């Protein structure tokens, strides 16, 4: 049910079900074994196998010109994604350039030009030339001569019924001889993914897949179908409109999110980027001591506002965690406003109240409400949520280095697996607390 709700193609679910039945023999299972956990692990492992075609994705080579061609449906986010990939490689020290060969969609060249200009990436295209093959050829020659080492070619978005556009796509591929052809797929396409992916694979040699628009409710279940149809690895997932909203694909994190288990790895990466490095050791030390004040909560709210859309953050949390339920009704801009209202309330507290929340009594609540312009109910709601966070932090008290079994007991098994087991968890804790948890 979780897979179908995540837009996985019905035939793919049936294939998965057959594979799981082959892997499990519940009747012969030894007594004392947790069947529910065993089934869950088997489902997880089978999904990982389906999303990993066993093919290593192509990597660009230094010292030569690398040509990447993008194909996909119209409206899949292809033109935005080519700029995201170029920006990704630019951050890695490459010299990328973009070519717009989309002469079918009005405004395609203008969109690519705007995105490329904002990202400070060279681009080539034309408002007058209508031959995409000539545009591709001229653009590649131009950037080759200029010494650019990654040239990304954006083609017209098409539908599997549009024979003329598919022929055009084939001609572009023949002329520019790309080192990799990337199929871009909308993460919310759902049941139609299989037919569309097969149509593209039958015309050109798709070498990799990028799943876009995973920033909202879409779980990306169609990705299973796309990989099954193209036998090509997923290399990135798009998680938003910003130029940096392109994440390297990590199969265990993706499957965990698909099944509603959350994406701890992705969450950790976002937190590490949002929390200032000089604050990380202090936070880790306070967690170790089981200390958590309203002042700490205020700082965490500041970090959450830097973590991007709350929808994206919520999507990485397991369905059964208290924090997921806490944030569930506060998505998008409404979520940010909710957090800001809590911060306004805390701005009206004294230093003593922020550091020792237990002293806040009814008369103080009334004063804080008047001073912040918020209702008494909102102040009480904030204090209730603070106590929920505090309970989690108290579990970390007295956990010392070398006592990893204590920490592991606080982490659900599937999240521990995502983090790379005990060693991965230990590395993360040490990285977060270099000065406080050695």
Secondary-structure topology with pairs:
Elements: H1 2-5, H2 10-23, H3 35-51, E1 66-72, H4 78-91, E2 96-100, H5 108-119, E3 123-124, H6 132-145, E4 150-154, H7 163-176, E5 180-186, H8 193-203, E6 208-212, H9 222-230, E7 234-238, E8 246-248, H10 251-258, H11 264-274, H12 280-288, H13 294-306, H14 310-315, H15 322-327, H16 332-347, H17 351-355, H18 362-372, H19 376-394, H20 404-408, H21 413-418, H22 421-432
Parallel strand pairs: 1-4, 1-5, 2-3, 2-4, 5-6, 6-7
Antiparallel strand pairs: 7-8
Description:
The protein has helices spanning 2-5, 10-23, 35-51, 78-91, 108-119, 132-145, 163-176, 193-203, 222-230, 251-258, 264-274, 280-288, 294-306, 310-315, 322-327, 332-347, 351-355, 362-372, 376-394, 404-408, 413-418, 421-432, and strands spanning 66-72, 96-100, 123-124, 150-154, 180-186, 208-212, 234-238, 246-248. With 438 residues, it is of the alpha/beta class. The protein has an 8-stranded mixed β-sheet, sandwiched between helices. α9 (222-230) links the parallel β6 (208-212) and β7. α4 (78-91) runs parallel beside α5 (108-119), α13 runs antiparallel to α16 and α18 crosses α19 (376-394). The longest helix is centred in the last third of the chain and has 19 residues, at 376-394.
